[in-house]
Amino acid sequence: MATEYGHAWLGEIIRIAERFGHTVLDLSRDAATQERLFTALAEFQPDIMFLCSHGNESQFSGQNGEVVFTACHNDEVMAGNQAYYLSCLMGEALVPSMVSKGAVTVAGYVTEFVWVIDPAYVDDKLADPRAYPFMRAIVESSGRLLEGGSWQHFYDTWVAMCNMGVREWFERDDPTAPSIVAALEQDRDSLVVLGETSIRPVQEALARAMSPLPPALGVTLLALFL
Amino acid sequence: MSATEITFSEAQRLTEDYLTSWMNQLPYAQRSAPVIVFDNRTWSIPEMRGQVQMGTSVGTRYVNFYVKSLKRYVIAG
Hints:
- The complex is a heterodimer.
- Chain A is α/β, with parallel strands linked by helices.
- Chain A has helices at 2-19, 34-44, 94-100, 132-146, 151-170, 177-190, 204-207; strands spanning 23-28, 48-52, 59-61, 67-70, 82-86, 105-109, 115-116, 191-195, 220-225.
- In chain A, the strands form two sheets. A six-stranded mixed beta sheet of chain A has the order 1-9-2-5-6-8, with helices on both faces.
- In chain B, strand 2 (34-38) and strand 3 (41-44) form a beta hairpin.
């Protein structure tokens, strides 16, 4: 169920990307394989990638637990690319390894990515009020990149949105509020953005146009999730 | 204010107490339902409390997560 939430959240990022006129290659579910991802990287050459799946310190996995990236084994494939990994722990070793192999910018988390859900909303995850502050932080910060912001803007937005969630839940009379605040604070402090942080993955001039652009003008984006 | 050093057993007990208190405040229908997303999967509170009590890898990391969030304690060792 955890990755189902990630799937729903990346769906929102795709919706925003398409609104800005970006071309999206969606590698979800059965398409979330190493072969499909590596082929897409070679042929599609995305400007930015948003990836959500299971991770640990040194590995990122795709569908059915297939290991897609392993630090110091095949992460040189990321050379020249920019990516945001919504996965646990990768910031500890795999993200630094990708950057040392030539990835331009990679964002990931150095601890478990923690959040809280309301079981009443399993069929409508985007409406889950407990998960909302986490979704908002992810979607808003990703949106900054898609509208032409830099990775520094992405990071600043991430921190600001997490802090907003903390403020909103801090005084709330809800038995789950302390867990939400704790998780938001951990996730806020866990994000690392390594590599070029001043770079803008998407050209601002293109992204400024809010209405859909002709496909030839759009930039590319790749999403991988379970 | 400096943090108080506590043993892992004390940290474990604080976490168990917190999880129990949280569970007892939830509506009955939610007490055994998944509400925590941690370590790439969902957990109900009793499941996570079991992990904490058994001192599994996930339970240990959850204890560290919870105690750190209190900003009052550091776990010795």
